[in-house]
Amino acid sequence: MSNEVVLDIETQNTFEEVGGYDHDKLRISVVGVYFYETDEFVAYEEKELPLLWQRLERSGRIIGYNIKGFDFPVMNHYYAGDFLKFPCLDILEVIHQVLGFRLKLDDVAAATIGYGKSGHGLQAVEWWKQGEVEKIKNYCLDDVRVTKAVYEYGLKYEALAYKDRFGERKAIPVHFEPMVQTQSINFTMPF
């Protein structure tokens, strides 16, 4: 776990604003990251992404919630390589494989660790339009903290939780064994 990272992104716009589900048309406002290796939370603005790519290439597994379905496809628009080739743990993907359906991070977090997210992504888009980048950074890093707490709970107890439609707390068996990476990746250098 020492070189793993937890990641979440916020965007400047929505799919509705770009006319459909085209990840290439979404613009990143902030990427929030927790680095286990240095025990630090860092928020990167769009203009700072090259600094983030260098750190991610030296990191191990990237952990997130729906990162394969959202974060990575949006980030790939900015990146010379392919994030889908990075070692990763998509917590939503694991949940979907176990249950056969998808759950919101907020619902999993509330049932698993007792608290949820501090807001929702559409608020971050509005803050972007209002020029309130610090609010976006704080919100994004809060999402990273929640995702990190859910990951660590699953790692420790090999289970997460959710409430079914009757309000009953149900277990989600998971196996989040930490990955040990032996070699760093470098996709930003052309070959």
How would you describe the overall organization of this protein?
It is a single chain. The protein has 7 helices and 7 strands. By secondary structure, it is an alpha/beta fold. The chain starts with a strand and ends in an 18-residue tail after the last strand. It has one domain (5-173): Nucleotidyltransferase, domain 5. Helix 3 links the parallel strand 4 and strand 5. A 5-stranded mixed beta sheet has the order 3-2-1-4-5, with helices on both faces. The model has no long low-confidence stretch (mean pLDDT 89). Helix 5 packs across helix 7 and helix 6 packs antiparallel against helix 7.
Properties at a glance:
single chain; Nucleotidyltransferase, domain 5; two-stranded antiparallel ribbon; globular; 191 residues; alpha/beta; five-stranded mixed sheet; helicase
Which stretches of 5+ consecutive residues score pLDDT under 50? none
Please give the CATH architecture.
Answer: 2-Layer Sandwich
Give a count of the beta strands, DSSP E runs of length 2 or more. Answer: 7
Give the CA-CA distance, first to last residue.
30 Å
**How many domain modules?**
1
Strand arrangement in the largest pleated sheet? 3-2-1-4-5
Order of helices and strands: EHEEHEHEHHHHEE
The shape, in one word, is globular
Helix content: 25-40%
Short description:
It is built from seven helices and seven strands, in the order βαββαβαβααααββ.
List the helices and strands and how they pair.
Elements: E1 5-11, H1 15-18, E2 28-35, E3 40-45, H2 49-58, E4 62-64, H3 67-76, E5 88-90, H4 91-99, H5 105-113, H6 121-129, H7 133-157, E6 159-163, E7 169-173
Parallel strand pairs: 1-4, 4-5
Antiparallel strand pairs: 1-2, 2-3, 6-7
